[in-house]
Amino acid sequence: MTVDFSNVMCTNVSNKLIAWFDTNGRSFIWRERREPFVVLIAEILLKKTSANVVNQFLPRFLDRYSDVHALNNSKFEELEEALAPLGLSAQRGKQLKSLAQALVQSYGGIIPSERDELLQLPGIGDYTAGAVLSFAYRKPEAIVDTNVARIISRFYGIKPSRCEARRSPEVWERARGLVSQDSECSQRINWALLDLGALICRPRRPKCDECPLNDNCAFIAREFTA
After folding, report:
1. Measured between alpha carbons, how far is 12 from 204 in angstroms, rounded to an integer?
2. Which residues does 89 contact at the CB level (< 8 Å), separation at least 6?
3. Quick one: CA dihedral 143, 148, 151, 153, positive or negative?
4. Residue 46 — φ and ψ, nearest 5°?
5. pLDDT single digits (tens) 179-211
6. What is the pLDDT of residues 130-147, one digit of tens each?
7. Which of 13, 119, 178, 215 has the highest CB neighbour number within 10 Å of its CB?
8. Is 29-136 the same fold as 5-26+141-225?
9. pTM, whole model, 2 decimals?
């Protein structure tokens, strides 16, 4: 089986991802409520915690801390107690307090809509910045976590050298190519990649027969010819 991967167009891949997501995508609070504060808090809490757990926890947290100012004015002991059900409460509490303070002091409590400004905030890296820009501000920004990196590496046959796949410049370049085709659809493309990595393109025993990209995937081609 021979596949010319150089002819696999980003637009074709993006369209398949969108079609799959529209039928199979997961529903979370931060996808329904796309306010920048909600998206930012969700992305911070999602680190080292499953999406389903955060989805159950987030409504209570937002009732208590509805915006940046409420978070900034909170007592650390109370914030730590509120975060206890998720674990890592001291670490998360310190990050959220530092983040809220920086947002109030530098931006009047407004979440920035520019990547460079987001990256200057405490604890915000490329992934979180991209998530806020894509999901809250509807910008054609790529996001690459372990799941997304696995999909892109497998599909395009990328073998990152000297770094983790999620930090690979080539993986990020491919991800940017997918979302740059249509800014109106970039949100759903990113969500599709996240959900595809969680549900289908798993680290072990991937469900390749259910994948919308299986007809042009380098990983499947390699398995077929091995």
Report:
1. 26
2. 80, 81, 83
3. positive
4. -70, -15
5. 986 667 899 999 999 999 999 999 999 999 999
6. 999 999 999 999 999 999
7. 178
8. no
9. 0.89
